Amino acid sequence: MTNETLIQDLENATRIAQAGEQAPLLGGPVGLMWASLTTVALMIHGAVVAGWIGIPAPMTGLIWATQGIVGTVLTIILSRGQSTKPGCHSFANRAAEGAWIAGIIMISTFAISLVIGAATGQTEAVDFNFIPPAAFAISAVINGMLAKLTGYGYLKFSAVMSGVATAVTLMMVRQPEMYFVAGALLILSGVIPSFIENRRAR
Amino acid sequence: MSREPEFDISQVDEVIHGRIRLAVMAYLSAVSPASFPELTEKTGTTNGNLSTHLTKLESANYVELEKGYKGKRPQTLVHLTATGRKAWLKYLSAMRDIIGV
Question: Is the pTM here over 0.90, yes or no?
Fold first, then answer.
Protein backbone atom coordinates (compact mmCIF):
# COMPACT_ATOMS: atom_id res chain seq x y z
CA MET A 1 0.00 0.00 0.00
CA THR A 2 1.59 3.32 -1.06
CA ASN A 3 1.48 6.38 1.15
CA GLU A 4 -1.01 8.03 -1.22
CA THR A 5 -3.29 5.00 -1.19
CA LEU A 6 -3.05 4.86 2.59
CA ILE A 7 -4.02 8.52 2.91
CA GLN A 8 -6.97 7.98 0.55
CA ASP A 9 -8.15 4.97 2.53
CA LEU A 10 -7.81 6.87 5.80
CA GLU A 11 -9.74 9.81 4.34
CA ASN A 12 -12.44 7.42 3.20
CA ALA A 13 -12.56 5.83 6.65
CA THR A 14 -12.75 9.29 8.27
CA ARG A 15 -15.64 10.24 6.01
CA ILE A 16 -17.47 7.03 6.89
CA ALA A 17 -16.88 7.48 10.62
CA GLN A 18 -18.11 11.08 10.43
CA ALA A 19 -21.22 9.94 8.55
CA GLY A 20 -21.92 7.56 11.41
CA GLU A 21 -21.28 10.22 14.04
CA GLN A 22 -23.52 12.69 12.25
CA ALA A 23 -26.35 10.23 11.65
CA PRO A 24 -29.58 12.16 12.25
CA LEU A 25 -31.66 11.56 15.34
CA LEU A 26 -34.54 9.24 14.52
CA GLY A 27 -36.93 10.12 17.34
CA GLY A 28 -38.77 12.80 15.32
CA PRO A 29 -41.98 10.88 14.48
CA VAL A 30 -42.49 9.64 18.05
CA GLY A 31 -41.51 13.00 19.55
CA LEU A 32 -43.86 14.89 17.23
CA MET A 33 -46.69 12.51 18.10
CA TRP A 34 -46.23 12.85 21.87
CA ALA A 35 -45.75 16.64 21.74
CA SER A 36 -48.89 17.06 19.61
CA LEU A 37 -50.96 14.67 21.72
CA THR A 38 -49.85 16.33 24.96
CA THR A 39 -50.58 19.81 23.57
CA VAL A 40 -54.15 18.74 22.79
CA ALA A 41 -54.51 17.12 26.24
CA LEU A 42 -53.23 20.29 27.95
CA MET A 43 -55.69 22.46 26.02
CA ILE A 44 -58.62 20.17 26.84
CA HIS A 45 -57.54 20.06 30.50
CA GLY A 46 -57.41 23.88 30.53
CA ALA A 47 -60.86 24.07 28.96
CA VAL A 48 -62.27 21.71 31.61
CA VAL A 49 -60.85 23.63 34.62
CA ALA A 50 -61.97 26.92 33.01
CA GLY A 51 -65.48 25.52 32.84
CA TRP A 52 -65.70 25.65 29.05
CA ILE A 53 -66.30 21.91 28.81
CA GLY A 54 -69.05 20.60 31.05
CA ILE A 55 -67.28 17.76 32.78
CA PRO A 56 -66.17 17.78 36.43
CA ALA A 57 -62.56 18.80 37.04
CA PRO A 58 -61.65 15.48 38.75
CA MET A 59 -62.44 13.76 35.44
CA THR A 60 -59.34 15.36 33.87
CA GLY A 61 -57.55 12.17 34.90
CA LEU A 62 -59.40 10.45 32.07
CA ILE A 63 -57.92 12.92 29.57
CA TRP A 64 -54.42 11.95 30.63
CA ALA A 65 -55.19 8.25 30.82
CA THR A 66 -56.46 8.46 27.22
CA GLN A 67 -53.39 10.43 26.18
CA GLY A 68 -51.15 7.77 27.74
CA ILE A 69 -52.92 4.82 26.10
CA VAL A 70 -53.21 6.41 22.65
CA GLY A 71 -49.62 7.63 22.82
CA THR A 72 -48.30 4.22 23.79
CA VAL A 73 -50.15 2.47 20.95
CA LEU A 74 -48.95 5.06 18.42
CA THR A 75 -45.39 4.77 19.75
CA ILE A 76 -45.42 1.03 19.07
CA ILE A 77 -46.72 1.63 15.54
CA LEU A 78 -44.34 4.50 14.73
CA SER A 79 -41.32 2.68 16.18
CA ARG A 80 -41.63 -0.24 13.76
CA GLY A 81 -38.77 -0.26 11.35
CA GLN A 82 -36.79 2.35 13.27
CA SER A 83 -34.24 -0.22 14.42
CA THR A 84 -33.34 -1.05 10.82
CA LYS A 85 -32.67 2.54 9.76
CA PRO A 86 -29.01 3.45 9.13
CA GLY A 87 -27.41 5.13 12.10
CA CYS A 88 -30.10 4.03 14.56
CA HIS A 89 -27.38 2.76 16.90
CA SER A 90 -25.22 5.86 16.68
CA PHE A 91 -24.07 7.21 20.02
CA ALA A 92 -26.51 10.15 19.83
CA ASN A 93 -29.50 7.94 18.98
CA ARG A 94 -28.67 5.53 21.81
CA ALA A 95 -28.26 8.45 24.21
CA ALA A 96 -31.58 9.95 23.08
CA GLU A 97 -33.41 6.65 23.48
CA GLY A 98 -32.00 6.04 26.96
CA ALA A 99 -32.59 9.60 28.12
CA TRP A 100 -36.20 9.73 26.93
CA ILE A 101 -37.05 6.32 28.43
CA ALA A 102 -35.65 7.52 31.77
CA GLY A 103 -37.47 10.85 31.41
CA ILE A 104 -40.82 9.24 30.68
CA ILE A 105 -40.41 6.84 33.60
CA MET A 106 -39.75 9.81 35.90
CA ILE A 107 -42.73 11.83 34.63
CA SER A 108 -44.97 8.77 34.95
CA THR A 109 -43.64 8.07 38.47
CA PHE A 110 -44.36 11.69 39.41
CA ALA A 111 -47.92 11.46 38.10
CA ILE A 112 -48.69 8.03 39.55
CA SER A 113 -47.35 9.07 42.96
CA LEU A 114 -49.69 12.07 42.93
CA VAL A 115 -52.62 9.81 42.00
CA ILE A 116 -51.81 7.46 44.89
CA GLY A 117 -51.34 10.46 47.15
CA ALA A 118 -54.72 11.87 46.15
CA ALA A 119 -56.43 8.50 46.64
CA THR A 120 -54.98 8.24 50.15
CA GLY A 121 -55.62 11.87 51.04
CA GLN A 122 -51.91 12.80 51.15
CA THR A 123 -51.98 15.27 48.25
CA GLU A 124 -54.40 17.85 46.94
CA ALA A 125 -55.86 18.41 43.50
CA VAL A 126 -53.73 21.53 42.93
CA ASP A 127 -50.58 19.41 43.36
CA PHE A 128 -51.27 17.86 39.97
CA ASN A 129 -50.52 21.26 38.47
CA PHE A 130 -46.84 20.59 39.18
CA ILE A 131 -46.74 17.85 36.52
CA PRO A 132 -46.33 20.20 33.50
CA PRO A 133 -43.43 22.14 35.07
CA ALA A 134 -41.76 18.87 36.08
CA ALA A 135 -42.17 17.47 32.56
CA PHE A 136 -40.77 20.66 31.00
CA ALA A 137 -37.80 20.56 33.38
CA ILE A 138 -37.00 16.95 32.44
CA SER A 139 -37.37 17.82 28.76
CA ALA A 140 -35.01 20.79 29.16
CA VAL A 141 -32.32 18.58 30.69
CA ILE A 142 -32.65 15.88 28.01
CA ASN A 143 -32.68 18.29 25.08
CA GLY A 144 -29.82 20.27 26.58
CA MET A 145 -27.74 17.11 26.83
CA LEU A 146 -28.60 16.04 23.26
CA ALA A 147 -27.85 19.55 21.97
CA LYS A 148 -24.41 19.34 23.59
CA LEU A 149 -23.79 15.91 22.06
CA THR A 150 -24.98 16.75 18.55
CA GLY A 151 -24.58 20.52 18.26
CA TYR A 152 -28.00 20.75 16.59
CA GLY A 153 -29.51 24.23 16.89
CA TYR A 154 -33.11 23.05 17.04
CA LEU A 155 -32.27 21.01 20.18
CA LYS A 156 -30.68 24.04 21.82
CA PHE A 157 -33.86 25.98 21.02
CA SER A 158 -36.00 23.16 22.46
CA ALA A 159 -33.90 23.04 25.65
CA VAL A 160 -34.12 26.82 26.15
CA MET A 161 -37.87 26.92 25.47
CA SER A 162 -38.42 23.96 27.83
CA GLY A 163 -36.49 25.85 30.50
CA VAL A 164 -38.60 28.95 29.94
CA ALA A 165 -41.74 26.81 30.04
CA THR A 166 -40.61 25.30 33.36
CA ALA A 167 -40.27 28.74 34.90
CA VAL A 168 -43.49 30.17 33.44
CA THR A 169 -45.67 27.17 34.38
CA LEU A 170 -44.21 27.10 37.90
CA MET A 171 -45.03 30.77 38.35
CA MET A 172 -48.60 30.07 37.17
CA VAL A 173 -48.97 26.75 38.99
CA ARG A 174 -52.01 27.85 40.98
CA GLN A 175 -53.78 29.42 38.00
CA PRO A 176 -56.10 27.35 35.76
CA GLU A 177 -54.79 29.30 32.73
CA MET A 178 -51.46 27.53 33.27
CA TYR A 179 -52.67 24.61 31.13
CA PHE A 180 -53.34 26.82 28.08
CA VAL A 181 -49.96 28.50 28.49
CA ALA A 182 -48.29 25.08 28.86
CA GLY A 183 -49.95 23.90 25.65
CA ALA A 184 -48.75 26.96 23.75
CA LEU A 185 -45.21 26.61 25.13
CA LEU A 186 -45.16 22.92 24.21
CA ILE A 187 -45.80 23.85 20.59
CA LEU A 188 -42.62 25.92 20.71
CA SER A 189 -40.52 23.55 22.83
CA GLY A 190 -41.75 20.21 21.50
CA VAL A 191 -43.88 20.24 18.37
CA ILE A 192 -41.72 22.53 16.22
CA PRO A 193 -38.34 20.95 17.17
CA SER A 194 -39.76 17.44 16.61
CA PHE A 195 -41.04 18.52 13.21
CA ILE A 196 -37.56 19.77 12.33
CA GLU A 197 -35.98 16.52 13.58
CA ASN A 198 -38.43 14.57 11.43
CA ARG A 199 -37.46 16.49 8.32
CA ARG A 200 -33.72 16.14 8.99
CA ALA A 201 -34.02 12.36 9.19
CA ARG A 202 -35.59 12.05 5.73
CA MET B 1 17.76 18.38 11.55
CA SER B 2 14.02 17.62 11.88
CA ARG B 3 13.14 14.46 13.69
CA GLU B 4 11.69 11.80 11.42
CA PRO B 5 8.48 10.27 12.71
CA GLU B 6 9.34 6.92 14.24
CA PHE B 7 7.16 3.94 13.60
CA ASP B 8 7.39 0.25 14.00
CA ILE B 9 5.76 -1.56 11.07
CA SER B 10 4.73 -4.34 13.42
CA GLN B 11 2.42 -1.80 15.12
CA VAL B 12 0.26 -1.76 11.99
CA ASP B 13 -2.59 -4.15 12.66
CA GLU B 14 -2.91 -6.23 9.52
CA VAL B 15 -6.41 -7.35 10.54
CA ILE B 16 -7.66 -3.76 10.21
CA HIS B 17 -5.23 -2.70 7.48
CA GLY B 18 -7.35 -3.11 4.36
CA ARG B 19 -9.81 -0.74 2.68
CA ILE B 20 -13.03 -2.60 3.53
CA ARG B 21 -12.07 -3.65 7.07
CA LEU B 22 -10.79 -0.15 7.73
CA ALA B 23 -14.13 1.29 6.58
CA VAL B 24 -16.07 -1.24 8.71
CA MET B 25 -14.06 -0.39 11.83
CA ALA B 26 -14.43 3.35 11.12
CA TYR B 27 -18.22 3.10 10.85
CA LEU B 28 -18.58 0.83 13.88
CA SER B 29 -16.52 3.28 15.94
CA ALA B 30 -19.43 5.70 15.51
CA VAL B 31 -22.41 3.37 15.07
CA SER B 32 -22.45 0.10 16.96
CA PRO B 33 -24.17 -2.20 16.39
CA ALA B 34 -24.71 -1.71 12.68
CA SER B 35 -26.81 -3.95 10.49
CA PHE B 36 -25.37 -5.95 7.62
CA PRO B 37 -27.17 -3.93 4.89
CA GLU B 38 -26.06 -0.71 6.61
CA LEU B 39 -22.42 -1.79 6.46
CA THR B 40 -22.76 -2.95 2.85
CA GLU B 41 -24.08 0.46 1.90
CA LYS B 42 -21.56 2.48 3.87
CA THR B 43 -18.52 0.49 2.67
CA GLY B 44 -19.74 0.23 -0.91
CA THR B 45 -19.02 -3.46 -1.17
CA THR B 46 -21.00 -6.62 -1.88
CA ASN B 47 -22.62 -8.92 0.68
CA GLY B 48 -20.19 -11.73 -0.05
CA ASN B 49 -17.14 -9.51 0.19
CA LEU B 50 -18.35 -7.94 3.42
CA SER B 51 -18.96 -11.40 4.90
CA THR B 52 -15.38 -12.38 4.16
CA HIS B 53 -13.99 -9.29 5.84
CA LEU B 54 -16.31 -9.59 8.84
CA THR B 55 -15.14 -13.16 9.33
CA LYS B 56 -11.56 -11.95 9.58
CA LEU B 57 -12.51 -9.22 12.07
CA GLU B 58 -14.60 -11.69 14.08
CA SER B 59 -11.74 -14.19 14.21
CA ALA B 60 -9.60 -11.48 15.81
CA ASN B 61 -12.46 -10.75 18.28
CA TYR B 62 -12.72 -7.19 16.97
CA VAL B 63 -16.39 -7.55 16.09
CA GLU B 64 -19.19 -9.75 17.30
CA LEU B 65 -22.01 -10.84 15.01
CA GLU B 66 -25.48 -11.11 16.49
CA LYS B 67 -27.82 -13.13 14.30
CA GLY B 68 -31.50 -12.83 14.99
CA TYR B 69 -34.82 -11.90 13.53
CA LYS B 70 -36.66 -8.65 13.08
CA GLY B 71 -40.20 -9.92 12.88
CA LYS B 72 -39.92 -12.75 10.37
CA ARG B 73 -36.89 -11.36 8.57
CA PRO B 74 -33.40 -12.50 9.54
CA GLN B 75 -31.21 -9.68 10.74
CA THR B 76 -27.49 -9.65 11.48
CA LEU B 77 -26.12 -6.93 13.72
CA VAL B 78 -22.40 -6.28 13.93
CA HIS B 79 -21.05 -5.04 17.27
CA LEU B 80 -17.64 -3.48 17.83
CA THR B 81 -16.11 -5.29 20.81
CA ALA B 82 -14.03 -3.64 23.53
CA THR B 83 -11.00 -5.44 22.08
CA GLY B 84 -11.89 -4.10 18.65
CA ARG B 85 -12.20 -0.53 19.91
CA LYS B 86 -8.79 -0.71 21.59
CA ALA B 87 -7.26 -2.18 18.44
CA TRP B 88 -8.89 0.58 16.36
CA LEU B 89 -7.47 3.34 18.53
CA LYS B 90 -4.05 1.70 18.44
CA TYR B 91 -4.27 1.41 14.65
CA LEU B 92 -5.15 5.12 14.31
CA SER B 93 -2.16 6.01 16.46
CA ALA B 94 0.14 3.85 14.32
CA MET B 95 -1.21 5.48 11.15
CA ARG B 96 -0.57 8.94 12.57
CA ASP B 97 3.05 7.90 13.21
CA ILE B 98 3.45 6.59 9.67
CA ILE B 99 1.94 9.64 7.99
CA GLY B 100 3.74 11.91 10.39
CA VAL B 101 0.80 13.91 11.73
Answer: no
